[in-house]
Amino acid sequence: MDPASLAAASRELISFQVGDQEFCVDIGAVLEIRGWTPATPVPSSADYVSGVINLRGVVMAVMDVSARLGMGSAEPTARHVIIVVDIRGQKIGLLVDAVCETLTIRSDQIQPAPNLGGEDGRGFIVGYLAAADRMITVVDLEPLLPARAPQAA
Asked: Of these four, 9, 23, 58, 116, which has the most CB atoms within 10 Å of its CB?
């Protein structure tokens, strides 16, 4: 494969920690990474929506990635971070434990997710990336977006 084709087949991902697991998403969707800001709860929102925050004058929903992936709700501390992403033109914050690193990989390095018959994570998980001493779950952001994003009252 010539160098231009190899470069075209590469992807940049950003990895983050949720509990004891490492996940990654396409870095192209990431707008910024910011420290934890307490969110204002939104009545009748999904259990994985932590609430909303003010991001430079714009009200933005914050999603608890741990709860969304069926791993239990996070108890945010000052050490948690919010990854601000753009999903289908909507800014949303992803509450995660920590950001780990930026990875440049070839698309063929992502191994498909095995079908284990469970419902949790179905549609979110693209596959797995085998790193030196760990497995990183590759997540698709599109299905993470709540069906109806919370709005300020």
From this structure: 23
pTM of the model: 0.84
Residue 104 CA to residue 106 CA, distance in Å, equals: 7
- CA angle centred on 4, ends 15 and 6, rounded to 5°: 45
* H or E stretch at 66: helix 65-68
- The phi, psi pair for 29, rounded to 5°, reads -85, -10
Distance CA 57, CA 89 (A): 17
- Owner of token pair 């004058």: 57
Q: pLDDT tens digit string along 110-149?
A: 998 877 655 545 578 889 998 878 899 999 999 887 555 4
For 10, counting Cβ atoms within 10 Å of its Cβ (0-12 exposed, 13-18 middle, 19+ buried), the class is exposed
Which residue ranges make up each domain of the chain?
3-144
- Residue 117's alpha-carbon distances to 21, 113, 114, 121, 136, in angstroms, are 20, 11, 9, 11, 20
